[in-house]
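User: Hey, my collaborator sent me this sequence without any context and asked if I could get a structure. I don't really work with proteins. Can you help?
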Amino acid sequence: MDPEHIGSFGRVLLLAAHPDDEVIGAGAQLPRWHDRILILHATDGAPRNPADAERAGCASRSDYARLRRKELACAVELAGMTPDRLAALPIADQETLHQLDVLTTEVARAIDEFQPEVIVTHPYEGGHPDHDSCAFAARFACLLSESQPRRMEFTSYHAGPSGMVTGEFLSSSERVATYVLSESERETKRAMLTFYASQQHVLQYFGVEHERFRPAPEYDFAAPPHPGQLHYERLGWGIQGAAWRDYAQRAMKELGIQHATHHT
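Assistant: No problem. I've predicted the 3D structure and written it out in structure-token form, which is a compact way to encode the shape of the chain:
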């Protein structure tokens, strides 16, 4: 896949788990896509655990969700995007596994209404349960939708031998397109990330040198994304990969999807 082709996509539906994921994964592309993109966030970015809200100086989860939305609006405005290019579901951070059928149905509705050429989202890598939920929703929304956009992925993060790995896919593929950012693109992406003041303790681990994309594999969501402990299992959230996979199987039944497709 030619990296230069990434910026020339037609209508793009970008499905991101949380505000800031769209810049982490595709920030350099947003100025190119600004007038032909819809960014749909699967959550409001605010967990029910108050720790993140308190760190950001917010009195409540709802205040924290509003702060994250404000940060998002400022960040994408730098890319030339207007508020009508943004949509979000009222799901709390870390809770998409409980609403996988709803998330998938809403993504299918967005596809039908927006008619994108491509849907771009997270890979299934066990980095965050909401990231994995986005991979699930994109896969099966395309089955439920009357349209058949191409499914693409940007990098997020996942477990590695020495901790969290960012900016790389879990499995290598000759189909990965690496887009090397120019200095001006790096400056713009840094500026966009700076607007996410509440997330700087996390964003410090993400570089701005390149962005990587690939066609989405045909995942088997009944199987773990890799052997061993998943990244989010290390974080003390009380969410296990086995539980996420159980919810995924239930959602498939609710959606009328009989068989999981296998990882390639």
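In plain terms: Residues 3-255 form a domain with the Rossmann fold fold (CATH 3.40.50.10320). You can pass these tokens on to your collaborator as they are.
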